[in-house]
Amino acid sequence: MTTPPVSQALTEMGIPHRVFQHKGPVNSLEQAAEERGQLPEQIIRSILFRVSADEFVMVLMAGPEQINWKALRHYLGEKRLTMASEAEMLRITGYPRGAVAPFGLPQPVRILVDESIFVHDEISIGSGIRGITIIMTRTDLKQALGTVEIVQLG
Predict the structure, then answer these.
(1) Can you name the residues that pair with 135 across neighbouring β-strands?
(2) 63 neighbors 29 (Cβ within 8 angstroms)
(3) Which of 39, 42, 66, 151 is the most exposed place for a label (fewest CB within 10 A)?
(4) Cα dihedral value 139, 64, 45, 1, nearest 10
C-alpha cells in the first residue's frame, strides 16, 4: 500500500495515527464506520466551500451531522456560499471527494471546526486516497490542527 499523503503530513508533524484500508468500495458513511469498528459520528468529514472566486474555507464536521448553512454564512459574514465543485476541490486540496482532510494541502486553507468532532476519543479522517482512512485520537487531531476556529455549525 502506498503511504497516503495525509499520513505523510502527519508523520512529518510527529502526530501518531494509523492507516486503515477498506477491502472494497465504500458506499455510505454507515458502511465506512462499520468496517472501521466506529460509529458514524467518529468519522470526520472535511467539506470545502467556495466563499468567492479565489477564497475557500474547509469545515470539519462529525459524521452524519448537517451543516447549518445560515449559521455558516452568518459566522463568515457572507450572504452566499457554495460547496466547491469536484474540480475546485482537487485544485485547492489535491484530494478527491471522500478523501479530503485538512493536512498535506498544497496551499493554506481557512479551517473551521465544528465542536462535534471532539466528542469521541477516536476519530477517522480522509487520507487523500479514496478507500483509505486515517485513524487517530481526538487529542492528536487537536494537536495536528493547531490553532483553528472552533464553531457550532450543526
Answers:
(1) 18, 124
(2) yes
(3) 66
(4) 90
Instruction: Please check whether residue 86 is in contact with residue 58, taking contact to mean a CB–CB distance below 8 angstroms.
Output: no
Model confidence pTM above 0.85:
yes
CB-based burial label for 27 (10 Å; 0-12, 13-18, 19+)? exposed
- Model confidence pLDDT, tens digit, residues 61-112: 999 889 999 999 999 999 999 999 999 999 999 999 999 999 999 999 999 9
Pairing of strands 44-52, 82-83: antiparallel
3-state DSSP call for residue 120? Answer: coil
35 in Cβ contact with 113 (< 8 Å): no
Q: Which of 37, 46, 5, 20 is nearest to 131 (CA)?
A: 20
73: left (phi over 0), alpha (psi -120 to 50) or beta: alpha
Structural domains for the chain:
5-151 (3.90.960.10)
Q: Which residues contact 7 (CB under 8 A, 6 or more apart)?
A: 17, 19, 127, 134
